[in-house]
Amino acid sequence: MTRFAKLHACSNDFLIVEGPSSPELAKKLCERHSGIGADGVEFLERTGPLAGRIRLSNADGSFAEISGNGTRCAAAWLAYTAQAAPGDVLTLETDAGSRACRIVEAAGSHFKIAANMGVPEERPARITLTDKTLVHGIFVSMGNPHFVIVVDDANFRAHGRGWTELGREICFHKDYPQQINVIFLRVIRADEIEIRIFERGVGPTTSSGTGTCSAATTMIAHCGGRSPVTIHAPGGTQRVEWAGPGTEMTLTGPADLIASGEAFLG
Fold first, then answer.
1. Which residues contact 132 (CB under 8 A, 6 or more apart)?
2. Taking the mean position of all CA atoms in its chain, how far away is CA 20?
3. Strands 121-128 and 134-141, sheet pairing
4. Residues near 35 by Cβ (< 8 Å), separated by ≥ 6?
5. Sign of the four-CA dihedral 104, 110, 116, 117
6. Is the pTM of this model over 0.85?
7. Residue 45: enclosing H or E segment and its boundaries?
8. What is the Cα–Cα distance from 194 to 217, expressed in whole angstroms?
9. Are 200 and 194 in contact (CB under 8 A)?
10. Contact, 122 vs 259, CB < 8 A?
11. What is d(CA 180, CA 199) in angstroms, rounded to the nearest whole number?
């Protein structure tokens, strides 16, 4: 029997399981029909009332260095159990480093959290598809890798393909043996953008915290954008503040507790 909590951040859903990480358990729990259902599991080991260590396993059992939304969900669970209040800061150690999460709003099972996401690394990148199409983008590391493509199509088509088809090929491309998250960015104005996400280990997803940050990085560093940037994804809206290359980034968004209980899986 496994105790769990389920939360979502902009419909990007995660299970919080307290204890050591287990890829096989994550796969069972994340199954939408025979399990609880989730995009991933954040395995949490508490190190204090407002602190802990988390390790993320995707729905397919693969590990990811960090998830912005998953980190926020883990912070919200800690805040809920510790009855944290606005202004309190929680510290979570991830495989991408330490992340400080400040409670902005706390109302029952709903939280709004501003998370320090570290210093983005970015550079122009390109990739050649199997049909020899050359795709230009921006590589952004938020502690995990992203390939960001700027599009001007309302349906996020690029190079004659739908975004899910193109995202899948780039995600599994031989140039990225550990796979890569693929973000499609459409500019609305200098401080507002819209994105679509093909996430490694998951596929098309409604939201991504690090994907949101990588899109904001691309917008500010390469597209004349200005901070703060509002980023819309199918699952909801988040905000990024960033002073530019070499500085730390802050991601602000919601996290909501859905349920907690026991799963007869293990």
1. none
2. 21
3. antiparallel
4. 28, 29, 263, 265
5. negative
6. yes
7. strand 40-48
8. 13
9. no
10. no
11. 7
Reported as a single tens digit per residue, the pLDDT across 158-208 is 999 999 999 999 999 999 999 999 999 999 999 999 999 999 988 999 999
The predicted-structure confidence for 21-75, as pLDDT tens digits, reads as follows 999 999 999 999 999 999 999 999 999 999 999 999 999 999 999 999 999 999 9
Query: Rounded distance, CA 263 to CA 181, Å?
Result: 30
DSSP string, 56-120: EEETTS-EES--HHHHHHHHHHHHHHHT--TT-EEEEEETTEEEEEEEEEEETTEEEEEEE----
Token pair for 137: 């983008």
* 117, 213 Cβ separation under 8 angstroms: yes
Angstrom distances, CA of residue 41 to CA of 64, 83, 129 = 10, 22, 32
Contacts (Cβ under 8 Å, ≥6 apart) of 76 = 7, 111, 113, 255, 256, 257
Q: What domains sit in the chain, N to C, each tagged with a CATH number?
A: 2-116+253-263 (3.10.310.10), 121-247 (3.10.310.10)
Q: At what angle do helices 68-82 and 209-222 cross, to 10 degrees?
A: 130
Distance CA 122, CA 216 (A): 11
> Of 214, 213, 257, which Cα lies nearest the Cα of 239?
213
